[in-house]
Design goal:
The chain is an alpha+beta fold. It has three helices and eleven strands, in the order ββαββββββααβββ.
Length: 216
């Protein structure tokens, strides 16, 4: 089963036209190296090869009094080291976080489960008092209403769904929202689960329709 499909809008083999950047920690960072860190992160997310990913990803599992695992929506963060061999540090840290958030829309207030991926900001600023600040490079959120459907169970059990959505977000530079489209002729019975991409200018488009799912 394929969990999403998104048309590739970025050519990762091409080099940006910007000039090299410089950081006191990492030295001169060429455009190719900047792009390479994003490609590395995208590939690891897409393949699921993250060495520090917590057990139970994309959530956390806790045991109840009977010893049965239950999903909890507690916030967490983990760090992944990316090779950066041309620098004295040898590695570049990427961070992945999970939080819950609320967002107001024109008609209602929605609650979301949110994952973000960050890379260090590499530029001319002298971050002499510590590591450079983190810059978000991927943003995925799931409408909590999706978790009430059968597809929500898939999200709980299969980490590839969120990992690959993060990979798409890195590649296309879009906020990826997994949400519902209800059927007008049978409300409350089934809903379409869709992946919506939102650009920085607010433009939205449906990247993929996962399918029609009943409620749990």
């Amino acid at each position: 089963m394929q969990y999403y499909h998104a048309r590739r809008n970025l050519d990762f083999s091409s080099s940006p036209s910007s000039s090299p950047l410089e950081s006191l920690i990492y030295g001169v960072v060429s455009p190719d190296e900047q792009l390479d860190t994003k490609v590395q992160l995208r590939n690891r997310l897409n393949s699921g090869r993250l060495s520090n990913m917590p057990a139970g990803f994309p959530f956390r599992h806790v045991l109840d009094s009977r010893g049965s695992p239950h999903v909890v929506y507690d916030s967490y963060e983990f760090r992944e080291e990316l090779p950066f061999d041309s620098r004295c540090t040898g590695k570049l840290p990427a961070h992945v976080t999970f939080t819950t958030e609320s967002a107001d829309t024109s008609s209602s207030k929605r609650d979301y489960l949110t994952w973000n991926a960050y890379l260090p900001k590499l530029d001319y600023l002298p971050y002499s008092r510590g590591p450079p600040p983190k810059v978000p490079v991927a943003h995925v959120r799931v409408d909590k209403a999706v978790m009430d459907t059968v597809y929500g169970r898939y999200i709980e059990r299969d980490p590839r769904i969120i990992l690959r959505a993060l990979s798409v977000s890195v590649e296309l530079g879009l906020l990826v929202t997994i949400t519902l489209q209800h059927f007008a002729d049978c409300p409350g019975q089934f809903a379409n689960v869709v992946y919506v991409g939102t650009a920085n200018n607010g433009r939205r488009s449906v990247l993929f329709t996962a399918g029609s799912f009943g409620y749990r």
